[in-house]
Input
Amino acid sequence: MRLIIEADYRSASRRAAEHICAAINAHASSAPPFVLGLPTGSSPLGTYAELVSRHRAGAVSFRNVATINMDEYVGLAEAHPESYHSTMRRNLFEHVDIRDPNIHIPNGNASNLHQECLDYERKIAELGGIDLFFSGVGRDGHIAFNIAGSSLRSRTRVQKLNPQTIAANARFFGGDASKVPTHAVTVGVGTITDARQVLLVVSGEEKALALQHAVEGSVTHMWAITALQMHPDAIIIADEPAVSRLQPETIAMFRFLERDKY
Output
């Protein structure tokens, strides 16, 4: 695992966007699409803004990128402003040159949700797997909607959301937790860690405990983020507040490892 420490959320977002752009640009344009896993929530918004800015500056193209979104609420209309279909269009897809057929988001209104989950995993396999999965993390260490207790080998499935997740997401629904859907289709921890590379942005003191578990704790299904310890190419970009619970020796070690990296 690499831990890259930046001063604040803006610089962490900029670093993440720089990494994503470099990965896309390194992929031959004539090859099969570069497969990019994407999250929603508040953590990726700064990175999305940076990606849009770089696209407008001609620094990156999404014409040969296929995206796999992590999740979608069950029963929320795609046109709802807080559906993840709407959120992704508003914050990224409408502003870059990605092709519509290359956008993949779970259908939370499928008549057979179990089959939808199987089909989503099949689509990932047909694309050749995910090259880079970009993610944020919840305060309780969840990635996608893999709440505490999720198997570290889990695949795409319907997940019941716990009260903590519903309370955290109420901010997107005018602060009214009763308006937050109670279930979501989500990729599994295993789906994410099967990606060739995983990149997380972790920002803020409220995420410090989750980051401490990820870096210094034991691997456990109670903190899904700890699964990254077993990944051969996992990168966490964190700001100073997010690393506030780490031991000084841990911070010093990761700063040393990133210095003059070849």
